Amino acid sequence: MSTEGDTVAQRPTRRRWRSESQPAPFSRPRPKGASLLAGRSSPKGKTSERSSEGVVTRRYHSAHPSPQQARQGSVVSSSSTSSLRKVEAFTPASRMRGAVVGGPPRVGVFRPRPSPPTTFRRMYERGDVPVSLYHDHHGHTLRWKVEVEKLDYHHFLPLFFDGLRETTHPYDFFSRAGIRDLLARGGDKILPVIPQLILPIKSALNTRDGRVICTVLKVLQELVMSAPLVGESLVPYYRQILPTLNLFKHKNVNSGDERD
Q1: What are the strands, taking DSSP E only, across the chain?
Q2: What is the spatial distance between Cα 178 and Cα 159, in angstroms, rounded to a whole number?
Q3: Angle formed by the axes of helices 210-226 and 238-247, to 10°?
Q4: Residues 186, 227: contact at Cβ < 8 Å?
Q5: Within the chain, what is the greatest distance between any pair of CA atoms?
Q6: pLDDT tens digits for the chain (260 residues)?
Q7: How many CB atoms lie within 10 A of CB 120?
Q8: Among candidates 201, 208, 205, which has minimal Cα distance to 109?
Q9: Against a cut of 0.90, is the pTM above it?
């Protein structure tokens, strides 16, 4: 028992000598049937267990979940991912909660690109191209209404090269057959027209159509062999012609007489 003359500092000291039969203050009675091996979880992810001999053992939590926990986690993850919505990258919505940033779309490098109607088709339908389709026992051939040697190559040769983008009959036949005849009979008229042929060749290659690319490569072979110094005059324009061919150089399928 503490006396009235005891100081405040002495009262905690006297409480330490309390009888062991008396319960500690503010202590809760242990329920009946409680096991002595009940562990207490520590904040560091450990579990302390006291055995019957009084030895304290520590059990670390395993990093690998049990099969039941893994199943429950998969169910939760599938339900949570189904509620998420896909958004584009680098947008304000990509920084919101519950959003999944989707990958970039396909570039479509080898996908054919549609080309607008060519000038060659428009002038042929208007009747400004001096050619016609002639049928005989060998099939259909090209017939010129004017002598090829008298044509203005600065006007007609780029016009026929513009028709290389055509893939429908009879425009594709007229353009290829007309180029063949013009290069075979042109001679010295071909070399001055080379700078005007680069833009139609580049436009035909940019269609990314395999048929058009094969046709352009064959026409380039005929163009180089048609007159002297034509191959040297094409060297300054390699930066306009080669990029598209560089994309298809690895598509070396054994296609016979075509692109490769």
Answers
A1: 40-41, 46-50, 56-60, 85-87, 99-101, 131-136, 139-144
A2: 10
A3: 140
A4: yes
A5: 139
A6: 444 555 545 555 455 555 555 555 555 555 555 444 444 444 444 444 454 455 444 544 444 555 565 555 554 454 455 567 788 888 888 888 888 887 777 878 888 888 888 999 999 999 889 988 887 777 778 889 988 888 999 999 999 999 999 988 888 999 999 999 999 998 899 999 999 999 999 999 999 888 899 899 999 999 999 999 999 999 999 999 999 888 887 776 655 655 55
A7: 25
A8: 208
A9: no
Spatial distance between the Cα atoms of 237 and 51, rounded to a whole number of angstroms: 88
Please name the amino acid found at residue 160.
F
Paired tokens of 242: 């080669």
Using the structure block, give the residue that is written with the tokens 């300054």.
236
Place of tokens 């436009």: 203
Which residue is it, tokens 């001679």?
187
